[in-house]
Amino acid sequence: MSREFSLAEIFQLGYYWETKILLTAVKLDVFSALDGKPKTAKEVAGRIGAHEPTLTLLLNALVPMRLLTKEGDLYGNSSTAEKHLVRHSSQYIGHLLVLHDAEWNNWGKLEETIRTGRRPVDRHVFETDPELGSNVLAVLHRIGQQSGPDLAKRLKLAGRERLLDLGGGAGTNAIAFCRVYPELTATVFDLPATLGLTERTVKEAGLEARIALLPGDFNRDTLGGPYDVALMSDILHYQTFESNEALVGKVFAHLAPGGRLVIKDRFLDEAGTGPAWTTAFAMHILVNTQQGGCYKTGDAMSWMTKAGFTSVTELEKTAVVQGVKNREA
Ligand SMILES: C[S@@+](CC[C@H](N)C(=O)[O-])C[C@H]1O[C@@H](n2cnc3c(N)ncnc32)[C@H](O)[C@@H]1O
Question: Comparing 25-29, 122-126, 213-217, 292-296, which segment has the lowest mean pLDDT?
């Protein structure tokens, strides 16, 4: 039996003031305005175009949150803010917080969504704001450098030559996979607006000769190939069950005999109550996509079986599913 919550813990669960204070400060780019030497509220207000007395309240609230310091009437960035919240810092993660802020109003419609089943948006961020989408992918690419190599090694792809990274985003996985397997070449298929970022990351990795970029809409356009391995990483939760079923069937047709499809996603367990993060992510997908959802590994396995994959296995619980296409197929 789980222990009872204290009242303080219940209130803490329902508390979001500091969240919105941080998101607003990042949206207003307060931390970049404070880069360099400490400044008064008046100077910061002048730089970001804000109402000084109101901005002062915001700046004061950021001090006990340990994001700003205050000496007399001069505000400065804490070392954390300087490193992660100043725009030109190489470790800036603000794009991700700006995305959370952009989604704030959608979350405000959660009650209505649950009452009516109607969602507040008609497209997802990669379609509505490709620049923000790419900025967020760039942050995730930088902070998620370790997950790609780990996945590549676990999949044991030695001997495979052609990889399709479908909806490959910044190319994080394609780059990691090519580094782990020197004989591998990859195609990153993604929306044209996203591939500008991919071009940069592939170039930075020095892998232009081994990673090709293919622009298109994976639901409508041909995917090239044939491929020995296809990866669908974190793309299926933006789509309906039926679109995913059709997409998995389409990928099957673009795989060579003996080819493999690997789906990595945020799957829910059978009861739908775990993993904990994914249950909250399912709510995020509910209010921020027109038709996405968090599925179960059993769903992905059924899409694969229906497509014609013969050997279908869950490689990692609630995370990775693999299907192998028969050599005679
Ligand atoms: C959450 S990101 C995942 C990126 C990458 N696979 C990873 O795991 O890091 C989703 C990606 O799907 C792409 N995408 C969404 N809808 C698409 C579509 N209809 N056709 C092609 N790409 C699409 C987006 O541009 C984005 O790069």
Answer: 122-126
Domain that holds residue 210: 128-324
Strand, helix or coil for residue 321: strand
Tell me the per-residue pLDDT of 273-302, one tens digit each, with 9 for 90 and over: 999 999 999 999 999 999 999 999 999 999
Residues, the chain: 329
Q: What's the CATH number where 233 sits?
A: 3.40.50.150
Q: Which atom of ligand 1 is nearest to the CA of 218?
A: 20
* 171 within ligand 1 shell (Cβ under 6 A): no
Gap from CA of 235 to ligand 1 centroid (Å): 5
Q: How many helices (H) and strands (E) in the chain?
A: 17, 9
Nearest CA to ligand 1 atom 27: 169
Residue 171 lies in a domain: yes
Tens-place pLDDT, residues 299-328: 999 999 999 999 999 999 999 999 999 998
Predicted structure pTM score? 0.94
Cis omega before residue 226 (within 30°)? Answer: yes
Q: Cβ(176) to ligand 1 under 6 A? A: no
